[in-house]
UniProtKB/TrEMBL annotation, chain A:
Active-site residues, record numbering mapped to chain: 402 (proton donor/acceptor)
Function: Catalytic component of the NuA4 histone acetyltransferase (HAT) complex which is involved in epigenetic transcriptional activation of selected genes principally by acetylation of nucleosomal histones H4, H3, H2B, H2A and H2A variant H2A.Z. Acetylates histone H4 to form H4K5ac, H4K8ac, H4K12ac and H4K16ac, histone H3 to form H3K14ac, and histone H2A to form H2AK4ac and H2AK7ac. The NuA4 complex is involved in the DNA damage response and is required for chromosome segregation. The NuA4 complex plays a direct role in repair of DNA double-strand breaks (DSBs) through homologous recombination.
Bias (Low complexity): 101-112
Record Pfam families: MOZ_SAS, Tudor-knot, zf-MYST
InterPro entries: Acyl_CoA_acyltransferase, Chromo-like_dom_sf, Chromo/chromo_shadow_dom, HAT_MYST-type, MYST_HAT, Tudor-knot, WH-like_DNA-bd_sf, Zf-MYST
UniProt xrefs under PANTHER family: HISTONE ACETYLTRANSFERASE (PTHR10615), HISTONE ACETYLTRANSFERASE ESA1 (PTHR10615:SF218)
SUPFAM superfamilies registered for this protein in UniProt: Acyl-CoA N-acyltransferases (Nat) (SSF55729), Chromo domain-like (SSF54160)
Name of the protein described by the UniProt record: Histone acetyltransferase ESA1
Bias kind Basic and acidic residues: ranges: 1-19
Automatic annotation (TrEMBL), chain B:
PANTHER family listed in its UniProt record: ENHANCER OF POLYCOMB
Region of interest: Disordered: 347-375, 424-550, 566-614
Keywords assigned by UniProt, alphabetized: Nucleus, Transcription, Transcription regulation
Cellular component, GO, one term: nucleus
Record's protein name: Enhancer of polycomb-like protein
Known role: Component of the NuA4 histone acetyltransferase complex which is involved in transcriptional activation of selected genes principally by acetylation of nucleosomal histone H4 and H2A. The NuA4 complex is also involved in DNA repair. Involved in gene silencing by neighboring heterochromatin, blockage of the silencing spreading along the chromosome, and required for cell cycle progression through G2/M.
Keyword tRNA processing included in the entry's annotation: no
Length: 518, 614
């Protein structure tokens, strides 16, 4: 890992201040230091985000570089390899150089004090996982620190030399040839233009909040990206789950070893006595909304954030534990929540949900989507995604999930897109009408043209043959379809049966219900 | 490498992809091998939609690379790569069936549900371990600080539910009364304030919980901090513009500002309309209120007047006593109080004023509200009344004779009017009885006599030609109420008089008499000669201007048709009917007869009638 960083630093040229490195002892470690930490038998570079003394021994909350934040964890001092050099955090630009040395010793005391009052001070800490990563990868952003975030979308980014360097470094796989990129960029730009591409320029925190306020978006709040997880474990239903990210549950719970979450009303409790008492009184047996779909396996409930504010807030708090790019900055009013459950004699058990803006300017059909960790890897995610597209079909709209996607979200969507597109193409082929345009594909599947293109390109199915573009049903895609079929024949096929939700009509909201204030 | 790329670019300059154009679906085997095959040997770097910072994450890249490799035809490498996530496992020792009892029955139809979480949890407060410890102490008769509680025996055991209800009440009340307690460090509410709050709203606490307010209060105060006991999320309470809480990660679910709607002319117009409507409705409600106020003022005035009346009577009574005037038994009481028996007296008075007994029934309602006459002498009235009745009957007889002396009833087959036809009569009978109403309506010559107010005795000329009636129809329907509610003593518009006057000069050859029960009688003048008309009339509407109406013999079936139309058209236009009676030349005899009858004419006539009676 370290050499890779060196390469990058080299590539970025001299404007990035070289990270100061040197040997450290346990006593001199402080927040922001990057040290080698053992993870699953491998030593990885990790940044210390927080420090605590537990049972008289220092523990460190570390973020492994190039690992998702959900793998951040508390480690004992033994796992830190201090035999190697550590990187000291780069000084803030605002700080005068002269202060640097004194600051270093002071920071030690401060950080110790801070570590006790962890939740309240986290916003003061400018050094955050993401911010640090940003600075190391996009040097231009360095001076602005956490109020910047890298631009995320748009064909132009593909030509950004620094990004290209970075991907080549990391991927280690053959990179796209320039000339083919050129054409694809064209293609993408064409399709993006049709979609009214949002402004990709990096924006400040103020602008971002403004965007949240006016855009109704539910993702991404910079200040919340870099939090240290506040819960160790939660208990929900039969399961005990390790949260992945910070969620703004009441600060009182930070001390709790285990937070209890009621499976039906999603209320949260710090102690088992309270939770048991609550369960004696709670009469809710299913999500508090209208069931709009039911098949042998699952049900879907439609819940209006405005009418079920408490429940939807609870749901958002819960899902924030597992969604990094979700913001709870603003209230749940402008959203509908589609909750998937399975049934038992105990009632309905929440499996996952997706939220959707009542009125989305960008045409997104999903804002946040989550399968609860205890139910992941069972194919529920695909059902959720399929359901969101079934809704779009009834609405007669093309839908796309709100960006940015998480890593798991991307994979989930890619798998779904691949499956439905390949299925449709095979069907067309069998029908003997092997011609279809990209837009027709999108229409048939309620997918945006961009997403269709994305999938086709990604599967290498869009090719140039005999001076014409063609869609190639690649052997790999067919093989994947066969594997999927084999799997389904064993486990049973789970799909959303569209005719079971024929009664559903897109909810219509009066102007007063659409406004966002209370 | 760079040279190859360049040459490739030259060789296969691809056309732009048209997303609308149909693309052929082919299998991999069908692709013709091309020189630039190499260029298709990798996956385009497509926009993933994942944050750049995360896109490069190790595990994601591993998965993407694996799938890219697969798409390029590589054999999937043994173990599938995946993104590791923190653990989610079955919890040990969870008594799931106890926590979540098996009570769910799946309904046959889709669930529809709108209760909120708050609805489903009756009491939000849940006991923790400390509470449980305190509660067991409390039930042992100990206080919050461990001392024996006075009067503990009187109270039975406090159940967990009751305890929670009490705590919940304290929490809710303090949150309600001091919403900003965590900001301004308000003092904790005293027990008295709590009790007061209970009294304000009885539903807040059950009777059982009320008993326990006091014992639990001490404990609650001990536990109470600035934050609620049940941890709650931080929502911005104060709607400040400050960014103080912007950086606080625990503050969530802020309210959004309203999205500005675009201003358009259409929306402006809508808004204006709404404002107008609002203004109108407000104005109407204001008027309503004003009228209510007016009514109440009148009521008050009425009360005051009644009181005055009472006091005056009292005075009168005292005068009577001091002067030694002795009235009938119970007279004094009647003087003082408007008792029910008074009504009886009133009706007797009415009779005395010359009413036929039959009309009293109709009248009595109105009389009750009539102002009281002081000290009427009953006997005088009785005598007067009898006299009056006798006179009236005589006068009536005369009158009838006079009316009919030149007329003969030619009605062949009297038609009883249809049911509706009797309506005007009934309405007429209910005519506001303020004035004197000496008789039930005598045979009315026509409806026009009702409509006019020269008296209830009137005659009418030949019926107007059907065409005229037809022409006038539209106006008739809405004119009618005017006459029904026409108040005696008012005159019809006088402007019409001059115009219609000439018509009156003609001596009609026949008349339509409007008899009891709404019957019409067609009568012809006895002395009118020579059978110009024997069975009916039809006259041109234009001929109204002619002095002498022309009569034409008509066949009988036309007459019946005509009569049928009469029945089906009960009303006549005001323009003609209303003014008619006044212009008709009345003989002086008739006039006096009318006066004698004292019909519902104008006040002058009434006076004459009354005077005559008196």
């Amino acid at each position: 890992m370290a050499p890779r960083n060196d390469v990058k630093d080299g590539a970025h040229g001299s404007d990035e201040p070289k990270a100061e490195s040197g040997y450290a002892t346990l006593a001199t470690l402080r927040i922001g230091v990057k040290a080698m930490v053992e993870k699953d038998g491998v030593k990885r570079k990790a940044e210390i985000l927080s420090m605590q003394t537990r049972k008289g021994r220092p523990t460190f909350y570390v973020h492994y570089e190039e690992f998702n934040k959900r793998l951040d964890e508390w480690v004992a001092a033994e796992r830190l390899d201090l035999s190697q050099e550590v990187e000291w955090p780069a000084p803030d630009k605002s700080e005068a150089k002269s202060k640097q040395k004194t600051a270093q010793s002071k920071a030690q005391q401060v950080s110790k004090a801070e570590s006790r009052a962890q939740p309240s001070r986290s916003h003061k800490r400018p050094r955050s996982a993401t911010a640090t990563r940003e600075t190391s990868e996009t040097p231009v952003d360095f001076s602005v620190k956490p109020s910047r975030r890298p631009s995320q979308q748009g064909g132009k980014e593909n030509r950004d030399p620094t990004v290209t360097v970075a991907t080549e470094d990391i991927g280690g796989t053959p990179q796209p040839e320039d000339e083919s990129t050129f054409d694809l960029v064209d293609m993408q730009e064409a399709s993006i233009a049709a979609k009214a591409a949002p402004n990709h320029a990096p924006y400040s925190r103020e602008e971002e909040i403004e965007k949240l306020r006016t855009g109704g978006s539910m993702t991404q709040n910079q200040t919340e990206i870099s939090r240290v997880r506040n819960f160790e474990r939660i208990q929900m239903g039969r399961y005990e789950i390790e949260p992945w990210y910070f969620s703004p549950y009441p600060a009182e719970f930070t001390d709790c070893d285990l937070v209890y979450i009621c499976e039906t009303c999603l209320c949260y409790f710090g102690g088992s006595t309270q939770f048991i008492r609550h369960r004696k009184k709670c009469t809710l047996l299913h999500p508090p909304g209208n069931e709009i779909y039911r098949d042998d396996n699952v049900s879907f409930f439609e819940i209006d954030g405005r009418r079920q504010r408490t429940w939807c807030r609870n749901l958002c708090l819960l899902s924030k534990l597992f969604l990094d790019h979700k913001t709870l900055y603003y209230d749940v009013d402008p959203f509908l929540f589609y909750c998937m459950t399975f049934r038992s004699e105990h009632g309905h058990h929440l499996v996952g949900y997706f939220s959707k803006e009542k009125e989305c300017g960008e045409g997104y059909n999903v804002a946040c989507i989550l399968t609860l960790p205890q139910h992941q890897r069972k194919g529920y995610g695909k059902l959720l995604i399929q359901f969101s597209y079934e809704l779009s079909k009834i609405e007669n709209k093309l839908g796309s999930p709100e960006k940015p996607l998480s890593d798991l979200g991307l994979l989930g969507y890619r798998a779904y897109w691949q499956e439905v597109i390949v299925d449709l193409l095979v069907e067309r082929e069998v029908d003997g009408a092997p011609m279809i345009s990209v837009e027709d594909l999108g229409q048939a599947l309620a997918m945006t043209t961009n997403d269709v293109l994305h999938t086709l390109q990604n599967l290498n199915m869009l090719r140039y043959n005999n001076k014409n573009h063609v869609i190639v049903l690649t052997d790999a895609a067919i093989a994947q379809k066969e594997r999927q079929k084999a799997k389904e024949s064993v486990k049973g096929r789970r799909v959303i049966e569209a005719d079971r939700m024929s009664g559903w009509r897109p909810p219509v909201f009066a102007a007063s219900a659409r406004t966002w204030n209370w | 490498m760079s040279t190859t790329r360049a040459s490739n670019a030259r060789l296969v300059r691809q056309r732009k992809l048209n997303t609308k154009q149909g693309l052929r679906i082919i299998r991999e085997s069908e692709i013709e091998e091309q020189a630039d095959d190499e260029g298709q040997r990798h996956i385009q770097q497509v926009e993933t939609g994942v944050e750049k910072g995360e896109e490069i994450e190790y595990h994601l890249q591993a998965v993407i690379n694996a799938s890219n490799a697969a798409a390029l035809g590589a054999k999937p490498a043994g173990a599938q790569s995946y993104i590791p996530t923190p653990e989610a496992s079955r919890a040990k020792g969870v008594k799931y069936d106890e926590l979540y009892p098996k009570v769910f029955k799946e309904p046959a139809t889709y669930i529809r549900f709108s209760s909120t979480v708050e609805d489903c949890i009756p009491v939000a407060y849940c006991m923790n371990d400390n509470d449980a410890a305190f509660l067991s102490k409390l039930n042992d008769g100990k206080d919050a600080d461990g001392r024996d509680r006075k009067g503990a025996d009187k109270l039975s055991q406090c159940s967990e539910d009751t305890f929670e209800e009490v705590m919940n009440f304290f929490e809710e009340t303090s949150a309600r009364m001091q919403p900003f307690a965590n900001v301004d460090n308000a003092p904790i509410l005293s027990l008295e304030e709590m009790e007061q709050s209970v009294q304000e709203d009885d539903d807040r606490v059950s009777a059982e919980a009320h008993k326990w307010l006091k014992p639990v209060y001490k404990y609650w105060v001990l536990r109470k901090g600035s934050r609620p006991l049940m941890p709650s999320i931080k929502v911005r309470v104060l709607d400040t513009a400050s960014d103080a809480d912007d950086a606080d990660p625990y503050v969530c679910f802020r309210r959004r500002e309203v999205r500005q709607t675009r201003k358009t002319r259409g929306r402006d117009a809508q808004v204006v309309e709404k404002l107008k409507k609002l203004r109108l409705e407000l104005e109407q409600s204001r008027q309503l209120v004003q009228l209510v106020v007016q009514r109440e003022h009148l009521n008050k005035e009425n009360l005051e007047t009644s009181r005055k009346v009472f006091e005056q009577r009292k005075q009168l009574k005292e005068v009577k006593i001091s002067k030694g005037i002795v009235g009938d038994k119970g007279d004094d009481e009647e003087l003082l109080v408007n008792q029910k028996p008074m009504i009886k007296i009133k009706s007797r008075q009415d009779t005395a004023q010359g009413q036929r007994p039959a009309t009293i029934r109709i009248r009595s309602g109105g009389d009750r509200s009539a102002p009281d006459n002081d000290l009427p002498l009953l006997d005088d009235f009785r005598a007067e009344a009898e006299q009056f009745v006798a006179n009236t009957i005589e006068a009536r007889k005369e009158q009838h004779k006079k009316w009919n002396q030149h007329w003969v009833d030619e009605t062949k087959y009297p038609i009883t009017p249809p049911l509706e036809e009797s309506d005007p009569m009934l309405k007429w009978a209910n005519f506001p009885p303020t004035g004197l109403y000496p008789t039930p309506p005598p045979s009315l010559p026509s409806r026009s006599s009702q409509e006019g107010d020269t008296g209830d005795v009137d005659m009418k000329d030949a019926p107007p030609p059907p065409e005229a009636e037809a022409d006038a129809q539209p106006g008739a329907s809405f004119d009618e109420p005017d006459h029904i509610f026409h108040m005696p003593g008012t005159y019809p518009p006088s402007g019409a008089e001059a115009y219609d006057a000439p018509k009156r000069d003609a001596h009609p050859a026949c008349r339509l008499r409007y008899g009891r029960g709404g019957r019409y009688y067609l009568e012809s003048r006895k002395r009118k000669p020579r059978g110009q008309i024997s069975s009916g009339v039809v006259s041109d509407s234009d001929s109204d201007d002619d002095y002498g109406p022309e009569y034409f013999p008509v066949s009988e079936h036309i007459i019946f048709d005509y009569r049928a139309t009469l029945n089906s058209r009960p009303t006549r236009p005001e323009g003609v009917a209303g003014s008619e009676p006044r212009q008709r030349p009345l003989s002086s005899g008739e006039q006096s007869a009318m006066a004698g009858a004292g019909g519902h004419g104008h006040p002058a006539m009434q006076q004459v009638a009354a005077g005559g009676a008196g």
